[in-house]
UniProtKB/TrEMBL annotation:
Residues of the signal peptide: 1-22
Annotated Pfam families: Arylsulfotrans (PF05935)
Gene Ontology molecular function terms on file: aryl sulfotransferase activity
Keyword Ligase among UniProt keywords: no
Name the UniProt record assigns to this protein: ArsR family transcriptional regulator
Region of interest (Disordered), ranges: 449-471
SUPFAM superfamilies to which the protein is assigned, alphabetical: Quinoprotein alcohol dehydrogenase-like
Domain of life: Bacteria
Length: 471
């Protein structure tokens, strides 16, 4: 047992129910519980508030670090890198002195690093594009990048053809909006050489998102909370995923073509699928939902009020629930008009059948025998299905990553120890936080052979069994 592992095991003795909904001023970090009988074993990758990207094992040991952050970092399947393991997508250059929270305006360049942090590919202000899998590209200067900088935010995906889908920001005036400029969302498909071969702009499809006339009027008349001079972030698309192979397309439903793209809007509470060929919306959920009914939750049931969701995607083939949509429903505050969770804020993870549009599985804090408000992150966060049926959840606001079984039992839990000053929720001044945007489970065989790992159980005390001496 390493010194770090012993330290984390000792810290776990301080865990009281291991829920951080309203965080105390002192609480344990690292792995606070690990049930080896029910947890699914993998590495986990995330970017911390120290602006580094960390790969940890099941005992919370950092097994690798890249001195760059990602929004989010994406560790690539070796099938997309010519068999090379341990390659990661991260940001390579950012503007100093400004906040990057909520958009990509500060993001100057993005790229792919190998296990040794060597730049394999890059796109942005750092000098165009480079590709290690092909002959050197000549003449690909930063003019290939709109505005000279990547402005990537919230997501990006490597495609089987070697291109990269980039979700980015575009600041421009849009006819019909009261705001002088909007902070629009744009998707680029970028070749290894840096050329943009496909582009989609959200405002071109404003009438396809399902807004009622009165809601659309609120959208167009809105302004940034930072003032009328600031660009209006009217949608705040925070997720972009490629559908990939799925049973719906196999059964003949063309809306679910594997090349189609799923996005969601935090500000407008909708999830939509874009046809890759036409750019049009071919499937949607929201922005309007029935109100939630408190009390016993009967499943399946129609999707009720989602608020400010993150990380919507189709569960991959071969995983339990394949073809369903998995989404972190933050239950913060969003919408046109605004809707809020109310007096007892709590988040949920939802598994949704996209054909019937019914919830077929969900997780709340109450499923772990704790108050529902014990599980809550009003922004950021993610959820990913694991091969054994567990779900890896990032409760991002509190820097907490954990696995739950299908019944809601917590099988593994980790609290990020990487605190740093952040302008988020600081009332105009930097405050210390360990918030983290997204967590990705990483199979052992996606990194170089011989990468260390530890799988030793960590058992927290029973709730109420630990007391701090007062004299």
């Amino acid at each position: 047992m390493t010194t770090r592992t012993r330290t984390l095991a000792a810290l776990s003795l301080l865990s009281v129910a291991a829920n951080l909904g309203a965080a105390p001023s002192v609480y344990p970090t690292g792995v606070t519980r690990y049930d080896t009988a029910t947890a699914y074993n993998s590495y986990v990758i995330f970017s911390g508030q120290d602006k580094n990207t960390h790969l940890i094992d099941m005992n919370g040991n950092e097994v690798h670090r890249w001195n760059a952050e990602g929004f989010p970092p994406v560790l690539l399947d070796p099938a997309l890198t010519g068999g090379k393991r341990g390659h990661v997508l991260v940001q390579l250059a950012s503007t100093t002195g400004t906040s990057n929270e909520g958009n990509g305006l500060r993001n100057q360049a993005i790229g792919e690093l190998d296990w040794n942090s060597q730049v394999i590919w890059q796109w942005g202000a750092a000098g165009g594009a480079q590709d290690a899998y092909a002959a050197p590209v000549e003449g690909k200067a930063s003019s290939q990048v709109p505005g000279g900088s990547a402005k990537q935010h919230h997501d990006w995906r490597r495609l089987p053809n070697g291109n990269t889908l980039v979700l980015a920001n575009l600041v421009h005036p849009v006819a019909g909006f009261a705001a002088p400029q909007v902070l629009d969302d744009v998707i680029y498909e970028v070749t290894p050489g840096g050329d943009i071969v496909w582009k989609w702009v959200a405002s071109d499809h404003l009438n396809e998102f399902g807004f009622k006339p009165e809601s659309l009027k609120l959208v167009k008349n809105g302004y940034s909370p930072r003032g009328k001079a600031a660009p209006f972030d009217y949608l705040h698309v925070n997720n972009m995923s490629v559908l990939g192979p799925n049973r719906w397309f196999d059964a003949g439903d063309q809306r679910f073509n594997p090349e189609n793209i799923l996005i969601d809007s935090r500000e407008a509470n909708f999830i939509v699928i874009l046809d890759k060929q036409t750019g049009k919306v071919v499937w949607s959920l929201g922005p309007d939902y029935p109100a939630q009914v408190r009390g016993p939750r009967v499943l399946p049931r129609p999707v009720d009020q989602i608020v400010g969701q993150h990380d919507a995607h189709l569960i991959e083939p071969g995983l339990p629930g394949a073809g369903h949509i998995l989404v972190f429903d933050n239950q913060g505050e969003a919408g046109y008009p605004r809707v809020s969770v109310g007096v007892q804020p709590r988040s949920r993870v939802l598994e949704i059948d996209p054909i019937t549009k019914q919830i077929v599985w969900e997780y709340t804090g109450g499923d772990s025998n704790a108050p529902e408000w014990s599980f809550y992150s009003s922004f950021i966060s993610s959820a990913r299905r694991l091969p054994n049926g567990n779900t890896l959840i990032d409760e991002g606001m509190n820097g907490r990553i954990f696995q739950v079984t299908s019944k809601g039992d917590i099988a593994w839990e980790y609290v990020s120890p990487y605190f740093a000053p952040t302008p988020v929720a600081g009332a105009g001044k930097p405050v210390l936080s360990n918030w983290l945007y997204r967590a990705q489970p990483v199979p052992y065989n996606w990194v170089p052979e011989g990468t260390p790992r530890s799988e030793k159980a960590v058992t927290p005390p029973e709730p109420g069994k630990f007391r701090v001496a007062t004299n």
